[in-house]
Amino acid sequence: MTLEWRERWADWRNRKLQDPKFQYWASRFPLTRARSRREAREIFDLVAGFIYSQTLLALVRSQVLQTLRAGPSPQSELQSLLGMGADAANTLLRAGATLDLLAHRPPDRWALGAKGAALLGNPGVLAMIEHHAVLYQDLADPLALLRGTRGDTQLAHYWPYATHQTPGQSPLEGVASYTELMAVSQGLVAAEILDAYDFGGHRCVLDVGGGDGSFLRSVQARHASLALQLFDLPAVIDVASERLQDTGIALCRGDFTCDELPTGADLITLVRILHDHDDERALQLLRAIRRVVPENGTLLIAEPLAETPGAERMGHPYFGFYLFAMGSGRPRTIKEIGELLEKTGFSQPRKYPTHIPLQTSVVAARPVR
Which residues have CB under 8 Å from 352's CB, separation 6+? Predict the structure, then answer.
């Protein structure tokens, strides 16, 4: 089907879907009834999504999910934990059960649902659920956010380096909190990267913007012979130094916007770093890497990619708004990353498949000789 005919078909379909009479007919006709019901549920999820997220936040913040890790509890105990009346507790618990976060066990006990149990297996997701309360403040009026001055938000204050002209001189008070958030969310991402790409062919890894070194410790656990270097802002390295004693990981303080990166690594990694920066600063970072990566070296970029099949909602809807509120960066497609790499002296990236692309994609590029 040509582009013109696809557009005509889409326009005709949209006119029909706007017609209440067609909606009525489609919901009752045997060949379209199932799809009509599915689309009605999906549309309702779009409308009610914020309530779902707030139900989840309430169950995590109140420690209900964490309490049920040990096994089912009577409703009276959960009500006492919640510190609310019977009707309010019943409202929250039943909502959680409908979302499969909890499961009701008659007559009066509650246990984890399948999704609640899965969440408890991922501390990084639990940390992000709590962290999203900051994002929700910025999204209370999404039009005001989009029309306002980018960066004058709660998230911009949480990630002060993102909008600071010289990140190394950004305020220090938030370093510990955002470094901890990055660390606790690294586990599954590190496993995805290490499963997708073979680090064994390298001798030295430099992780740029690696926080407290959580990713490099995962690398070290699988490849003990590799030399490892961590580069981050001085205040972040101060936090990392307390956690990396006796690991042999070399700690390098600096700011890539004004300092040279350390030399010696034949693999340089950017784990959820590039999409934090607008194009101008992303190009600055890639040029800094190009100056120190050897001709036979590799740059590895790991982050969720926009428009990834099966993970589309992680790109423009989630990270699009998150990074806009943060005041810096944007989700990019593999094509857009390739354009940045081409401008900075790297080859077109090779994408390595990951088990859960919703968490991260992995792409590698080499210097153009």
Answer: 196, 197, 362, 363, 364
Output the six-digit token pair for 157. Answer: 């204050």
Confidence of residue 172 (pLDDT cuts 50, 70, 90): low
Note the pLDDT tens digit of each residue in 247-273.
999 999 999 999 999 999 999 999 999
Q: Which two tokens stand for residue 367?
A: 């210097």
Domain, as residue range, for 76: 32-119
Instruction: Kindly report the backbone phi and psi dihedral angles of residue 157, in degrees, each rounded to the nearest multiple of 5, phi listed first.
Output: -75, -30
Cβ neighbours of 191 (radius 10 Å): 17
Residues 326 and 318: beta-carbon distance below 8 Å: no
CA separation for the pair 235, 191 (Å, rounded): 27
pTM higher than 0.85: yes
Q: What angle do CA 250, 254, 258 make, to 5 degrees?
A: 145
In the predicted structure, residue 173 carries a pLDDT above the cut 70: no
The answer to whether residues 214 and 182 touch, using CB atoms and an 8 Å cutoff, is yes
pLDDT at 182 (0 to 100): 81
Structural domains counted in the chain: 2
- HSE at residue 43, side-chain half, CA atoms within 13 A, is 7
Mark whether 112 and 159 lie in a shared domain.
no
CA distance 220 to 250: 12
* Cα atoms found within 13 Å of the Cα of residue 15, Cβ hemisphere only: 5
